Amino acid sequence: MDTERLLQPMETLPTLRGKYRWELLLKETDQIQDTIKNLDDIIFKTKNFGFLFWGGSLFLIVEHLDELEQWKRAVLILLTALIPLLFWIMDYYWRKYLMQCGQRERHISHFLNSEAFERLVLKGEKDIEGKQFPFFDVVGWIYTKTADVKTEGPFLEEYLVNPDEFKGWRVIKYKDAKWFYGVMISVSVVFGMLYMWL
Length: 198
Hints:
Distance between the termini: 93 Å
Structural class: mainly alpha
Radius of gyration: 26 Å
Oligomer: single chain
């Protein structure tokens, strides 16, 4: 048995490096999918709780309107617009990370179809002109273009996530959030105005 092992050719450092990097890429893509699934679940639950609290507040206020003065009715109904606004802020926080995960996944996909993949993974080269691909950064927090902490070694710039891209209106208007929370806020404002004039 020992002679069989001795007769097997030893793997070279580039081969080992390539295998190790390939395994890291597979694990990272699995981790990204799990993270996206978890973030989607959190966002879904945030929307559910937001709708529940908003609807419940409107129901309780409308149920007890007879006991209040007209201006107090309007103010209370207008205040219900704050509930979806607060949940939209929580949604913003999680959606930003969801978008960063998606960007990281696109970077990996881009890398898999590039010459850099062939050189760094298939051929097992140490680096490309002194630069490496940033392996295993699931949410795009570590290897970013604006990282607070300097990482060791230079990285291929096109594969670094830029967190500054995921701020402001881009995140606020992403997919259905603008409609979901926007409609709740609008309904509260419209009802508040109606009760002000009734």
